């Protein structure tokens, strides 16, 4: 067989001066000896979540203590004088006797306030039924243990007599029999009125007038004039006379105090039928 000759290795090539300089430089030596480190950003570990503080709930013992304290305070209040009526005040009375209200309201000192307030509707009903002069009534607590009764009256605005009986005309138009000895200084006498409708119309008109003006009227007469069935005459306590119409006398009478002031003591007749004018009395010598 054929013998193969191994090829001879070529002699190493001589390095150029540039290559020798690069090979012997310190930079190239460091790069050859020091391996490059793998520089990577460190992994961030997740921050631990903050735990919320556990809320302390109301324990059963605390709740029971609170209920016990409230019940104890309420019990002490109920047996104390603060829960009992110490003063009763009645306001709004003018013609209704205070004794009548005290008799019918059923409220006494020392009574439980809460019992009175719970029955306030019933008490108001009893008071309204006690007298036709009581239009409305209400009860309120105005202090720790002070009760106030508010009375709204349905007052008398006139009186009249038939034979031996005396009647009052109330503000709502109804008439009630009263004792003949009753004082009638607060309202006028009604003369020659014959029909219920006349009384109701007059009551509706006088409702527009203040009680101070009504007190200044001595008498109201219905003459049943043929020409004017609405005409009425009023005698005033100051000596003047007033002529007016039944259907609108209330609207005109509200001006009487200012008119009387302008007269400066003169006496005469104030005509309120059509407009308002004054005729002085003539003195005959």
UniProtKB/TrEMBL annotation:
- Is Coiled coil a UniProt keyword of this protein? no
Q: Which gene encodes it?
A: fstQ
- Listed GO CC annotations: cell division site; plasma membrane
Q: Does the keyword Cell division apply?
A: yes
Q: Which residues cross the membrane?
A: 57-79
What name goes with this protein?
A: Cell division protein DivIB
Extract the Pfam families matched here.
FtsQ_DivIB_C, POTRA_1
All copies of the POTRA domain together span: 83-154
């Amino acid at each position: 067989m054929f013998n193969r000759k191994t090829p001879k290795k070529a002699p190493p090539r001589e390095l150029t001066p540039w290559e020798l300089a690069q090979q012997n430089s310190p930079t190239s030596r460091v790069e050859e000896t020091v391996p490059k480190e793998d520089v990577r950003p460190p992994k961030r570990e997740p921050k631990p979540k903050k735990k919320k503080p556990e809320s302390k709930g109301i324990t059963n013992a605390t709740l029971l203590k609170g209920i016990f304290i409230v019940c104890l305070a309420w019990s002490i209040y109920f047996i104390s004088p603060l829960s009992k009526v110490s003063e009763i005040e009645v306001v709004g009375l003018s013609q209704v006797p205070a004794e009548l209200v005290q008799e019918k309201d059923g409220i006494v000192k020392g009574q439980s306030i809460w019992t009175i307030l719970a029955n306030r509707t019933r008490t108001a009903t009893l008071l309204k039924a006690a007298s036709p002069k009581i239009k409305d009534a209400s009860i309120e607590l105005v202090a720790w243990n002070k009760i106030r009764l508010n009375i709204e009256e349905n007052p008398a605005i006139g009186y009249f007599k038939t034979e031996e009986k005396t009647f009052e005309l109330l503000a709502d138009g109804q008439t009630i029999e009263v004792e003949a000895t009753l004082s009638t200084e607060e309202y006028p006498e009604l003369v020659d009125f014959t029909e219920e409708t006349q009384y109701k119309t007059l009551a509706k008109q006088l409702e527009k007038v203040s009680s101070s003006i009504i007190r200044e009227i001595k008498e109201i007469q219905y003459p049943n004039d043929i020409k004017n069935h609405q005409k009425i005459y009023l005698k005033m306590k100051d000596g003047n006379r007033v002529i007016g119409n039944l259907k609108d006398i209330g609207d005109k009478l509200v001006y009487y105090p200012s008119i009387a002031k302008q007269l400066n003591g003169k006496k005469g007749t104030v005509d309120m039928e059509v407009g308002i004018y004054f005729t002085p009395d003539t003195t005959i010598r």
